[in-house]
Amino acid sequence: MEYLILMVKGFFVGIALIIPGLSGGTLAIYLGIYEKLLHAIGHIFSEMKQSLQFLIPLGVGMAIAIIGLANLLGYLIDINSLVVLLFFIGLLVGGMKDIYRQAIPKQHPIEATTILSGVVSFSLIIVLIVFGKLSDSTGIATIDITFFNIILLVLLGMAASMTMIVPGVSGSALLIVLGYYTAIVTNVIGNILDFSELTYHLSVIVPFTIGAAIGIIGFSKVIEYVLQHYPKQTYFAIFGFLAGSVIAMFFEINDPATGTTHDVQEPIYTHLLEFLGDNIVSFIGAIVLFVGGVILSRYLTRLIPEKE
Question: What stretches pass through the bilayer (predicted)?
């Protein structure tokens, strides 16, 4: 039963990894497995049996979500990103109070270093948003398999995996900013069961996965260390990342009337009032799902004990 529960939790973390602006680390915190996940990854060689007993069912759940839902979620976001992303924004917002209490427990003084860590992390997300919008790139659809691009895929895997470890920082959003989300997530991972392109898919996935493994194992040790030695500052940095991620996800909401796929659609912030006037039913539905996301998140974060 314990393994089944871990698979279900891994499934939710996997969903987070393929939603632009959402972080797998965030869902791991809400599901009460974040610190155990860091320990299992960071000590996979020294405590292999215990680590694998935790990581294998979690990884199976993640793989099922990523392989099974990458295309579906991409399709739904193409159709109506407002409705889909507001649900996930609700998930983020619903858990922020609990993360805040991890950083600043009741009746405890607020330290300047704690506030600074949150300001810095929030600012990093804003910089990422600005850079992404200024780059004005819809990304590439395929990757030529050359030696240089194989090295690039390893580096992309490392970068994306490090953002997966940090709650509030989205690996998918980073790949969008760098212009590789469609090529890697949508066209390869989302079509992994298309065996007619198996050679190409493996040529992309294998180096990307190697880089991801290197990044996850290395960076998990760093996060585990700072959580142990600077817990308040670390959790408030996570709070800053989450606050920035909420803003980042709003910028990912596009108008489906302006294109057939999300990556070519115009963002609604360029014509917000006109969009809302033309899509009032979608807006109401999105608000309902936002509230549902908040409620679900509040339920999940009961797993986090509140500090006194």
Answer: 12-33, 54-76, 82-100, 112-134, 146-166, 173-193, 199-223, 235-253, 280-300
pLDDT exceeds 60 at position 307: no
Count CB-CB contacts under 10 A for residue 214: 16
- Burial-class residue 46 by CB neighbours within 10 Å (0-12, 13-18, 19+): exposed
Burial 172-209 (b: 16+ CB within 10 A, else e): bbbbbbbebbbbbbbbbbbbbeeeeeeebbebbbebbe
Single pTM value for the model: 0.73
Per domain, the residue ranges of the chain are 2-303
What's the angle, vertex CA 18, arms to CA 198 and CA 65, rounded to 5? 70
d(CA 143, CA 166) in angstroms, rounded, equals 27
* H or E element in which residue 267 lies: strand 266-267
Tell me how far apart the alpha carbons of residues 185 and 182 are, in angstroms, rounded to a whole number: 6
The pair phi, psi for residue 305, each rounded to 5°, is -70, 135
CB 29 within 8 Å of CB 40: no
